[in-house]
Amino acid sequence: MLQRPLLSPGPETTDDIPGAFHPLKPWLLSHLGKGRETYPAHPWTDELESAILAWAADLGLSKEHIKITAEATPGHLVGLFAPQAPWNVLLPLAKLQMILFWLNTVDLGADQPVGHLMEPVRETLERGHSPSGGPDILRPIASLRDDIIAAGGAGLIPGFTELLLGFLHEYTFRQAWESGEPLPSLDRYLQHRTRTAGIVLGMWVQRLQPGLTGPGEQLPAPLLQLMKQGSLLVGLDNDLHSCHVAAESGERLSLIGVICQEYGIPVDMAFSCALTLNAAMRYENANTVASICADTSLPDTARRHARTIFHWVDSVYTWSLETPRYGLRSTDAHELVTRSCPAGE
Q1: Are residues 119 and 48 in the same domain?
Q2: Concatenated DSSP letters of 96-136
Q3: Could you read off the pLDDT of 37-94 as tens digits, one per residue?
Q4: How many C-beta atoms lie closer than 10 Å to residue 158's C-beta?
Q5: How many domains does the chain fold into?
Q6: Which of 3-17, 81-95, 299-313, 320-334 has the lowest mean pLDDT?
Q7: Is position 206 within any domain?
Q8: Which helix (H) or strand (E) segment is 47 a member of?
Q9: SS3 of 86, please?
Q10: Closest CA to 207 of 85, 75, 293, 49
Q11: pTM, 2 dp
């Protein structure tokens, strides 16, 4: 027989995430940083940031889009997670990150449900041009499609389309949860976070990079599983880094809030649970990489690709520490080791 939790979830357990986060911040960052490496900025970071700003302006996007672009530093982000990629791979990766930033801010916050984007997005990616009079986000998506094809990635478009539609589909649930629907179970939230972190989309486009499992090759199932693990880990890291900012802006959905609801515990205890979950996922992720690299039935490109995928988690972690949006840089935080050579070499 199922027993009731020792504590009953209520407003007092979930309403003050920022209040719990700030005094816990040094302790939280210290434990999140154990065993991690941070990475230096890519030498093309400034050029990438300028190119993305010019691209957004050339597309005629709104002032809100341009403001978000200036603050988001997508060029720094992609330079960290794809340090060996050539320019014609880095630029579409930066465009994709910017599209995801816009979706997460402008479109998720719009009055219309995100679901209304799904068919126009599908049409844009399948036909190569955005429907006339469609939402602004379709123009950058069409531009990204052109870049992927120009880089030899036409074979990536069908899979990319399904991944982006899956991302948007999950956002329809997020809008419902943010609008007052009961928060999901922890299992459902982890499934949701794997898809909405957007990392598999980036890893899919990174297949344009020479030396990886390319657009014309079948992606081995262990690599797809590794991509999903990495996406969830990035999502969990992001939740722990940004939950205070999200809560202060009025968002209901977060890993911390879901854990409070699932187990009927207060916020400070939920942070401990979230750290334990994060550590377990990192252990599993490292073991998956080791297993792939030890599998002699896989080609060398697959093993190299596994190390490249594994590099993403700490690279995005580095960006999260440095971006002003989360305010995490602190002299109280545990200092991480900076590694000059990228993984997957």
Answers
A1: yes
A2: HHHHHHHIIIIITTSSS-GGGGHHHHHHHHHHSSPPTT--T
A3: 889 999 999 999 999 999 999 999 989 899 999 999 999 999 999 999 999 999 999 9
A4: 11
A5: 2
A6: 3-17
A7: no
A8: helix 45-58
A9: coil
A10: 85
A11: 0.90
